[in-house]
Structures are given as structure tokens and as C-alpha cells.
Input
Amino acid sequence: MAVKKRAYRSIPIQKVNIQKLNDAFENKRTVVGIDVAKEVFFAGFMQESGKIELTLKFTHPQESRKFVKLLSGLPASHVECVLEPTGTYGDSLRFLLEQAEIPVFQISTVKSRAMSEVYDGVPSQHDAKSAAILGKLHLDDVSQLWPPSSVKTRELSALFSQMEMFADQVGRHINKLEALMARHWPELIQQLKLKSATLLELLVAYGSPQKVAQKLRSARKLMRKIGGNFLGQEKIEEVLRSAENTVGLPMMDCEEKWVQTLAMEIRRAQKEEARTCRELKEVGKEMETVAGMAEVIGERSAIAMELKLDSASEYESPKSYLKAMGLNMTIIQSGKRQGQLHISKRGNSSVRKYIYFAAMRWVEKDPWAKSWYQKKVKRDGGKVKMKALIALMRKLVQGLWHVGQGREFDSTKLFDTSKLTPAIITK
Output
């Protein structure tokens, strides 16, 4: 049976016949699907039968209060609004709805897009249709309640965003600095790490190898002060000799100034990143779910998972938790063609990044994880280490799901230890 094609009409909120709308929904359940945009929002008013009685549009934020007042005045048995959790454009409307005590539900973008052709037989998407689809999915119990974020979650989110901003600045500026040093002082980036405080402070103070060579005594003193016990005298002398004998292109004054400015910005961003990270840890300690995860994967990764996914306790199984991160296994088949098994990558990519680094640290710190990883790499011929690391990421996430259920993390339950010998961990 062909799906009936639908016609979509919308009217401005000023032209809505309030009496007609009230008569249509009096003492009835009313579902309002809201398509969010930058300025013009569309709202589809749907009966419990799935019939759209009205689609209106209003300008946000100018007419948002008028829209909420209209909803509050409906003589319906109860009104339910449903939105997609995309971006932040709908957050202020959610706040107004919550103030008016109108429940708000959410539906993932993936589900609403998948419904596009099923709903009316046409794969296209547009504002009025999207609003109708959201209402229909809500009636089909696909949605979930969208409660307001807690104070702690909002605090974590603000600090985490700051930390990521500063970390991003460090990464981008470090790449520029590496290119400059490769041209003007290539020996330095072989002797010291680019992100090291000693290298950066040396460049802030002098800017070029020529200036360092002119002021060896003060440069030596600065490196001792910054490097402390972590920087040996032999390494200091090696850096100073390279400043005198570098094969790099001599710097002009403007290039020297550019290096100093760049190094100064990196140091500033590093200090700000460290500050926000400390504040994050303090806030995270007060949240039980974050604290439990942090013991296993560190504060940053635990907070990223808390903010970008629902808490692990909200997932019914480890498989659903893996799927939310895009770490579930899938295979592409088409006729006689069959692809290789790989992770879907349809979940949150930011969380996968943090789990990737957490898995790398896990290999270095846990004897069972390291033993299993080494055995898998060897079995695969020793060439595809990434495949083994992804498999380890999946095991780590499964263990974290159990932590989210209130259990302790135990790596021995994630591996068949009868076939493994714990690896030696060197500090």
C-alpha cells in the first residue's frame, strides 16, 4: 500500500484562529513538534490520532513568548512539546517552556531523518514536514523526556568547553611553531619537546638562536630555572651549542618577533588549559558518575563522556553504550559484495577521541590489557596495531558500562586471563 502524499501548509502565529485551535484540542492530548532554526521556528499541532491540525511559524526570539502563551492557554488535557537536540538555538525556547511547566521531549536527528520517506513517501525534508515527523515519532514512543541540565552539568560544560578551546589553541600554534623552528633552528625541536615550558620560555625571552648565542649566560640561567630537576646540564649545553652552530636560516627581526609572540601565546593557552583542567577536576569530584569513571580513564575523558553522552547507567547494556559512541561493529553488504567488519563511527566522535587516548594509557598501565594487546598485535602479523587498539577501546567501554552500574572496574573480567600472562609494566 502506497503511503499517502501529504500537503504542508503553515501560517504565521499572528494569523492563528485561537478559537478554532481551542475547539480542536479541547480536553485532548496535544503533541507539538517544533522544528528549530536560527530565526523562524515551525510548530506542528498534532492530535493523538496523528492528524496535524495546524502548522504555525514564529520568529525567535521576538515571538517565542507569544508562542508559549498560546500553548499555555490551550484547553487541552495536556500539552507535550518535542524537539531535536541539535545545537543551542532551541535552548532558550526550552527554558520558556519549562518555566510554563510544559514538558519537553527530545528525538535524535538520526531517527527523524530515517522517518522522512516513511512518513509521506517522499525523502525530502523541510521545516513544516520536520515538525510533523517529530510529533509522529513522539506518539510512537520514540522520544524521551528532556529535563533541564543540572547546575553541576552546566558548570562542567562551560569549563570543559574552555579547556578544549585552550587545548585547540595550543595544538594549532604548536604546528606553526614547529614549521618555523624547522626553518630557523631545526636542532632545537630534536633536543626539546615543542610543548615543553623550557623551549617555549627560551623562545619568549630571546626569539632566535642568534640572540641565545649572544646571551649564553642568561639563557643557561633561564633554562636551569624553568627546567629544574627535569632538565640535565648536559641537555642545556647541547641546546646552547646548537644555538651557536645551527644550520637554520638566520632570522630577520620581524621573524624573531613572530616567534616570540607565538611562543608567548602557546604558554598563555597552556596555563589557561591547566587552570580550567584543575577546576574541572574539582567539580567532577562532586559528581559520583564522573568520579567513578575518572579513576579508570582520567578526569578529562570521564567528563567528556558525561557531557556528550547520557550517563552509563542510562544504557541497558554494554552494546548500547558502544553504539552511542560509534564503536559497534558493522559490515557493508551489497549483492555479492561483502565489506570488512569495522566500527560504525555513527556515534559521538569527540568521545571516541578521548576513549582512544584512554585505551593507550590503559595499555601502558594495566598488565592484563597490555598482554592481551601484544598478543592480538602478534596474531594479526604485527602490522595492524590500530585494529588491536580499537578492540581494546571496545573492551574498555564495556568495563566502563559496569562502572556506571555501580560496580568496580576489574580488567580481569574483560579478558580470558587463563590464556594470558600479565605483561611487565615499566614506569
About this structure: Residues 1-5 have pLDDT under 50 and may be disordered.
